[in-house]
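Summary for the steering committee. The consortium agreed at its last meeting that each partner would contribute one worked example illustrating the joint modelling workflow. Our contribution is presented below. We chose a case with several input lines so that the handling of multiple components could be demonstrated. No manual editing was applied between input and output; the record is shown as generated.
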Amino acid sequence: MPWDRNQMAARAAEELEDGMYVNLGIGIPTLVANYVGDKDITLQSENGMLGMGPFPFEGDEDPDLINAGKQTITELKRTAYFDSATSFGMIRGGKIAAAILGAMEVDEKGDLANWMIPGKLVKGMGGAMDLVAGVGKVIVVMDHTNKHGESKVLKECTLPLTGKGVVDRIISNLGVLDVVPGGLKIVQLADGVTEEELRAATEATIVD
Amino acid sequence: MKKVYPDAASALDGLLQDGMTIAAGGFGLCGIPELLIDAIVASGVKDLTIASNNCGVDGFGLGKLLDTKQIKKMMSSYVGENAEFMRQYLSGELELEFNPQGTLAERMRAGGCGIPGFYTKTGVGTVVAEGKEVKTFDGQDYILERGIVADLSIVKAWKADETGNLVFRKTARNFNPPAAMCGKVCVVEVEEIVPTGSIDPDLIHLPGIYVHRLIQGAHEKRIEQRTVRKREEA
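What follows is the complete predicted structure of the assembly.
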């Protein structure tokens, strides 16, 4: 059985170490916060906040307090607020230890595409280009294949890039791969997934 | 010089002209200058270039200016779920210059600080870098991005004193300070104007030197994504 959304998030949470300042993207990456356990992790929200808390209780929503996905959230005792230029100063300046992001495509050179499909879907890069260029470690959490069963882990991305050579580690529903010289290296297989299955679902070069 | 005006229309009097560039604060619908946007809609000014992270949502915030076709060009990082924004862009009615979010914020900050350009590694090797100078520092490539100087800034803060010293609230600060800094003229709307001297000078987020005109008003403060947890999960 491949990992589900929550198992992928739980696996991604294992990447985080005590004391880290971390930025989580929208979607599955947001779920990673549920699995950090006792580790002392400070979440950054790039719209101008360090120390992001959980969703508010019903009735406590504050329109002045949202995350980068525009969801209502809460503050913690450690919370600090700042403007967008300061926020991206700490991102671009390498102060954020890791970012966990979603992807439409990733390739064996660590290129990442996650912001638009020409002529079809225009989302915008938001803060993703700044994050992948600036943070210490870029971890991508994604489904290994699209709904037609085609690999999203490619030799070369076909969609407009978010960043070139920026991805360090891929956590998919089939397992964990690192971007290394020459291609991708298998770090871990998801429970019940065979190496043959992972290789069959991967277009990118896998190196030993 | 008196900075306080009675309402948004009078605060914008004499400042609007067709084809101008406006920098707007706000992220999503959080901390947006709702009252000034409404007054710009009512003014009928057109062919606007607007630098703002988003363009509101359908029918609210800057989205209202899309509905009335008053915007010629957006400089933004995110279209997201705004259907009219995507439709006008894909049909070619609207020019859209995609800016990475941090690059947009820094372009505003730099423009307001007298810095006409800066080098950043954000966007290297992507479409964002097309046509831009690439320079190598210490073995790493960077692209040249220009500072933005807008004809007008429209900004929302929480509190101001009568001299325009501003205090923002929580994540509603976002793009408001850099947007305020980059305007030749900056008009600010706040929830409350307090007597000068009643804000601790050490706790002012943006000094009044950046603020030229000021209004107080009631804000809807619409929530884009209401997300909550149940109390029994506590």
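The first strand of chain A starts at residue 21 and ends at 24. The two ends of chain A are 24 Å apart (CA to CA).
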